[in-house]
Amino acid sequence: PNQNEQSGAGQEGEQKAEEGQEGQSSAQKQSGASSAQNKPVFSAGETALFKHGKKVGELNPEETFAANAVLNKLRLAPYSITTPDTQTPCSLSIKQNAPKIKLKVAKNGMASLKIHLTLTAGLLDYAKARPAQDVKDVGNVPTGAFSAAQKKLAGEILALFEKTRALDCDIFSLRDRYRKTGNPSFSKHEANLLQNTVAEVDVRFQNVR
After folding, report:
1. 58, 43 Cβ separation under 8 angstroms
2. 50, containing H or E segment
């Protein structure tokens, strides 16, 4: 694969901070004013997509988050959903993500991409009034929140794959993964690998405890 492709994605404006990661502006660094209350929260917004060194599209914040969940490490990353029972906004704080990507290519060139993603998360914010003991316990996630998050994020990852595939942008480095297997059919199937790949996504959220 072309080295300029760089997995098909590059952060706009060199903003490569993790979702929810805190940092200081240059003005704060120069002045030394670094109180925790004044630290801005940076998040990766739009992400440029490249093919052979040329920009072919970009990802919105939701798509960028989905890409980071699979390809990068998340630390204290907020993720918002709506609880299915009460339709109440709820924000989860993702402490850790553990992605696994498996690619299998058949003799005819058809491929199967399986993405398994486990995320450890707690409650960050919940709009509905709750008992005091629950408010103090950030690990007490509302009923149905994890299942809603699993369904939502899995759909976003699948949509991300379909979007990048349409742009022939190999964001998940499938060609590189296939090349490393040493399969002698690599050169035969490389060009159409993305178009011949069917993706399956399994997302599991687990409590911090």
Report:
1. no
2. strand 47-51
